[in-house]
Amino acid sequence: MTGSILHRISFVALACVLVIGAAAAGDARAQDQNGGLPGEWLSLYLGARTSGIGGAFVAVADEPLGAIWNPAGLSQLSQNEVSFETSFLYEDTKLNSLSFALPGHRLPSFGLTILSLGSGEFEKTNELNESLGTFNDGEMAFLLTTSKNITRNFYLGANFKVVRQAVDEFNAAGFGVDLGLLYQVHPAIRLGASFLNIGGPTINLRATDEVYPLDLRGGVAVNFLSGKALLTSEVGYRADAGATLGIGTEFWVHRTMGLRFGFADEAAAGGFSFHVTPGLRFDYGAADEQLG
After folding, report:
1. Could you read off the pLDDT of 190-227 as tens digits, one per residue?
2. How far apart are CA 236 and CA 48, in angstroms?
3. Neighbouring C-alpha atoms within 13 Å toward the C-beta of 76
4. What predicted TM-score, i.e. pTM, was given to this entire model?
5. DSSP E strands: which ranges in 187-224?
6. Residue 56 in contact with residue 247, Cβ under 8 Å?
7. Which class for 53: exposed (0-12), middle (13-18), buried (19 or more C-beta within 10 A)?
8. How far apart are the first and last CA of the chain?
9. How far is it, in rounded angstroms, from Cα 144 to Cα 157?
10. Which of 136, 140, 139, 212 is nearest to 178 (CA)?
């Protein structure tokens, strides 16, 4: 009887995933060609695991880097965890991340995440289009995360973040806050939502304030096959950028090997994980992206 009820609940949750995806599909293309928006590099950040499931991580967030999507996720951890990732992008651009999480029991959980984006060299010209050499563009973000379970099934979390941007000889920094929540509807079903860039950050490199737009995300995650399989979906909305949609699946074919496949808007993604030891995991992910 319990298994039958679980299957019915899982079916309803799966239907919700599909409905959420259909609702956002019409607006998903609205985010095209918005790479120049303030903080877009941080809003579109994808790790090795998250890229494989189409970036749909707001209702999962069960690792240190999950604080980027939903700071409430740290309350799910049972032991100290640290992760490091590097991503190779186009034109010698590279993303790096280092994240550490210290889960609490009676006390709140805490985490620290450092992200950096570095570009290759760009040509620098004057108003006559004469070459003046080259310059670099660099971005950094520092996230201090705290999370606490309000009830057995309800978690709240917050990021206090400082971001810094440097373009040529100009540099500036700003402060912002993220809020997140997780609700365990059923042992196999979890809902998540986050409100990112509340009240900033605001960057002023020369004379104009650039404010990171409010980023809203919501999603559902469903576990199958005694936790061996995961189906997750996420809908996001950023001011001035429109809606985004991510949907993906993760399946552990063996206790040491997991496979992933997903879609971020209309682009395919995939990846895998390999447990080298019980306490050490290697992740790889790849995603298709149209530069426009």
Report:
1. 999 999 999 889 888 887 888 899 999 999 999 988 88
2. 20
3. 22
4. 0.81
5. 189-198, 202-203, 210-211, 215-224
6. yes
7. buried
8. 52
9. 11
10. 212
